[in-house]
Fold these 2 entries.
Entry 1:
Amino acid sequence: MPREDYEAVMGLEVHAELSTKTKIFCSCKTTFGAEPNTQVCPICMAMPGTLPVLNEKVVEYAVKAGLATDCEIARDSKNDRKNYFYPDLPKSYQISQYDKPLCEHGKIEIETSNGKKVIGITRIHIEEDAGKLNHDEFSGGSLVDLNRAGVPLIEIVSEPDLRTTEEVEAYLKKLKSILEYIEVSDCKMQEGSFRADVNVSVRKKGDSNFGTRTEMKNMNSFRSITRAIEYEIDRQIDVIENGGKVDQETLRWDEVSGKTFSMRDKEDAKDYRYFPDPDLVAIKLSEEYIENIKNSLPELPESRKQRYLEEYKLSEKDANIITSSKYLSDLFEKAIEICNNPKAVNNWIISDISRILNEKEMEPNEIPFKFNELGKLVILIDKGTISSSIGKKILEELFENPKDPEQIIKEKGWIQISDETQIKEVVKKILEANPQSIADYKAGKDRALGFLVGQAMKETKGKANPKMLNQMFLEELKK
Ligand code: ADP
Ligand code: ZN
Ligand code: MG
């Protein structure tokens, strides 16, 4: 059967670390990157006789996430033990939720090149993260760091509604932006606070049954997720085309070879021997509690987008890019408050800032400068203190060494030359050096003017006021 007759099916389990100050069952800190085993206590180290106490913030954040994704919130919920051994899981079980998750039956709307599509959210539940193994290349052994043990997570499980890598990426980005907007997770992928288990299967187009899925765990970059899915779809089709059967298994994606490798047979729920955690009380939520959280939800990306279309007349595409990240969206709004020039701020974000983020493979939330610096940059250009080409240099500098743009200008000597005699001198010099361009212009080749202005800009290292240059060249050329 030709490959085009196959269809891929994907479902994602996303783990997001919650940005609570303390862990889920003890009062240890959750700060990322601390010295190993400095944020631990007898509870998260699983000493015998210790008892967990549920952090109320965790419930609040999970309910927030549920409400923001149109889930039903359980009035009656509980914690369960998921039993398995792993060296970084000292209790030998993980406290999670099994048959009574906090949130169920939600949805997220995504946008793709084929239009809008709704992706179902099966459930959102709370659980604890495990510790971390550091594989020590010198000793040949592995060292356990329990700082992450007990950091609160929500797991967001999607329905198997995704069909293409484009849909998967759109879904992940939308989910990430929602969590950022409601401020329950910083979603820093490079720090592992937003990671996805990717389930993939293939079937004949038109079939109503799903094929057997494989699962790739803990993926934390959009690029590797796309590559891994594409590889896995191909591999599964090959297996079927060669008369074989896809095994349900957990795979490891290897970024270097660009292949998946089998890790273990996929376990089923029954293998975990789930049972209600007897150390924790049931979670009962009142109508009032849920209502209060609903009322505290901030404006979500969809509504911000509509506002940008109407208030600032942004294009649909620009509004999508800016609202896709709360950081960009906040930067946009706050910079406008300072410079009152939405069009310019929009342009900076869509063109230069996006380009630099891309080049540096950075996430918007890693932008090192603040909204007031961007706002001031726009003002300096609007006032004519600097040209927009100097503006670009300042932006590059803001990424390297963020500080007040005026300070940067002073230190670098980048003030725009708007002094008439100075500009006139440059114009004269350039005209003298380029008699051919003068002849060209007089022969009707307008492009010659652009060339001359370009030369003058080069001569002044981008500091000459382009408007004045243009004007003065025109005056001279018309003589
Ligand atoms: P587990 O924890 O055992 O992986 P879950 O039910 O929590 O099981 O998650 C299963 C995930 O796999 C869901 O996101 C679901 O949408 C997805 N999924 C289930 N069946 C398929 C399939 N045949 N093909 C692709 N994805 C699937
Ligand atoms: Zn602790
Ligand atoms: Mg899974």
Entry 2:
Amino acid sequence: MSQDELNKPENLSPVEKMKTGSRGLRANLAEEMSNSLTGNINETETQMIKFHGSYAQDDRSRREERERKKLEWAYSFMIRLRIPGGDITAKQWLGLQKSCDTHANGTIKITTRQTVQFHGVVKAHMKPTMKDFDALGLDSIAACGDVNRNVMSGGNPLLAPYHAEVHAYADKISEALLPKTGAFKEIWLDGEKLPQDQPAEEDPLYQDRYLPRKFKIGIVIPPHNENDVFSQDIGLIAIGDGKTFEGFNVAIGGGFGATHGNSKTYPRLGTIIGFVPKDKAIEACWQIAAVQRDYGNREDRRQARLKYTLDRLGVEFFKGEVEKRLGFKFEEARPYSFTHRGDAFGWLQDHKNKWHYTMFVETGLVKDLEDYKVKTALKEIAELDCCGFRFTGNQNVMLIDIDKKNKTKIEKILSKNGISTDKQSKTRQEAIACVALPTCSLALAEGQRYLPEFVSKVEALQDKHGLSDKPITTRITGCPNGCGRPYVAEIGLIGKAPGKYVLRLGGDYVGKRMNSVYREEADEAEILEILDDLFAKYASNAKDGESFGDFANELLFTQYAI
Ligand code: SRM
Ligand code: SF4
């Protein structure tokens, strides 16, 4: 369909009409939230609340029981914070944990985009939770919805002397692309009400229609690709000469959401369109989002992400339109290379002699297991108030900027609570799963609840074939939307039905090549049988230093290709 035929007012999707009719994302959210007759909210407000960082959900495992008792489903809300670059203070962590214990299910969830979520917040607790965030200097504005989401940035301070300078861009970009509406303060923080006869606040980027779909920006510093830069709508690859930061290579149009059986939907890796000097980078992000705002598909939400706009109009056309608005051209992309994606677990010392500790948090769930007490350890460490907290895109947490004199105190707490990086295999440390059941309404199979058990079985196979020391990127999601970025895993499982997954193999180790479908549907036994056979071949035939993903790709998808 040509651009002229697209987005005629009569063909716009219902969500488009909800956005433009919402008076700056207000709709009837305040009224709906104060209706104590139901734990749920109406359809329009269900869409609007996303822009405020929250999803209306229900506990799917309790649906039958609730229906039997003639009760409405067990509705509650998930709230996702906006934490650009994943950084908060120890005091903020303590406040968040307290708020999660009081208003939510007590388990903070570190997400794949360097932020945290609360689950199970019932309606009456929504405002008090948002007020807690505000008192801590935090918010959930634009953590979800058709806007720029939490901006990611590589967390490892050892990557370059200019790490801090690059990392600060996450915050700057997030601020520059934040919606201008006062609805958040008005609804959640008892802020002044916009009089009914007044129009919503002007918003040069989002106007009254916002973006056609969610929009994501992530920064990485080579040689580390920890945020999967090619999965982002805008992926920024920091370029410097080793000492000085110069700017970013810009990749656009990454995105992973897809629907089983709908070939018009697909995961796509971002395309590098050039280099932008650092002083023009924020403006470039703003204009890329603005061009997507004007050209994106607003009729079919399954075709609305930037990746489809690019494939429909062509990368060169899109880039030209951005350059026209910027008034300058992107420079030729600069050389860079990636060597890894996983977090650097354990202790690191940076060039300023500060210490940093990366803690493994399986599937990002901050809870206490009998011999591995993440929740208690993080609370006790935060009480010392001698480090910052930085969430990683691999669902782990770094304790950052620690002086030598405090390192021993932290070590004692880690050891007392059983936290050690020697307890997990490299494959477990690098594994990711999405939330999926029971809260995600789109889940077709298990995600985070299944990953620990599945990884144990993969580890057993690795042991059997003498591959225990090899990290193999393993990612599971409960559906093809790809929240755990499984399309760039060496072993990717994508939920199709309870206990059944699409098995994808052959992604590379650094996230530059997507994996391919090896089985359209397989249960655990079939998947393990396939891996057993492949591990045997890998153990005896792999070239020196060859990753499992490269080996599997060559064997299964390339060797016999014509
Ligand atoms: Fe996601 C929808 C959880 C990262 C692609 N994602 C959802 C929802 C909100 C389900 C829904 O729409 O009702 C999930 C909430 C589950 C729950 O109960 O909490 C959900 N996504 C997550 C998180 C929490 C997974 C995790 O375990 O960490 C991640 C939160 C990130 C954040 O802090 O902002 C999360 N989601 C991602 C990523 C990875 C990334 O961004 O790096 C992707 C793939 C990249 C991309 O965007 O293409 C991703 N989520 C999706 C999609 C597919 C979008 C599409 O283009 O089709 C959906 C469905 C949708 O938007 O319609 C989705
Ligand atoms: Fe839910 Fe699917 Fe995302 Fe998993 S990948 S959290 S099942 S939307």
